[in-house]
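B., you asked whether I could sanity-check this one before it goes into the benchmark set. Here's the sequence:
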Amino acid sequence: MSYSPPDPPREVPPDIASKLEEQSPEVLRQIARFAEELAEHREREARLAEKEEDEEVEDRPEDLPDDVPSKATITIKEINDNRYYYWQWRDGEKIRSQYKGPVSPDE
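And here's what the prediction gave me:
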C-alpha cells in the first residue's frame, strides 16, 4: 500500500474529487456505500424502463397512430351534439388528445 493518496479516476469531476479529499475515512466509506447503492438503483431503473418499452411495443393496438403513445386511452367527446372518439394521454402536466373518428350511432 502506498503512502501517497490515490489519484481520482478521470471520470470523476474535479470539484467532487476535491470534496472527497476533505472527508474523514468514515464519511468516505458511507459515500462509497451510497454510491454503490445509487449505481444499483439506476441500473435497475434502466432495466425496468427497457422492459417497459419492450412491453409497450408488444401491447400497441393496431389502429394506434405512430405519434400517439401506447399508454393512450380512448375517450368520447361531445361537440355540437355529435360524439367523437379521441386518443388521450398525459404528457407531463398536460393532457394531450388526438382525433380518432366519429362514434357510430349504434353505440
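One thing to flag: DSSP finds two helices and three strands in the chain. Otherwise nothing jumped out at me.
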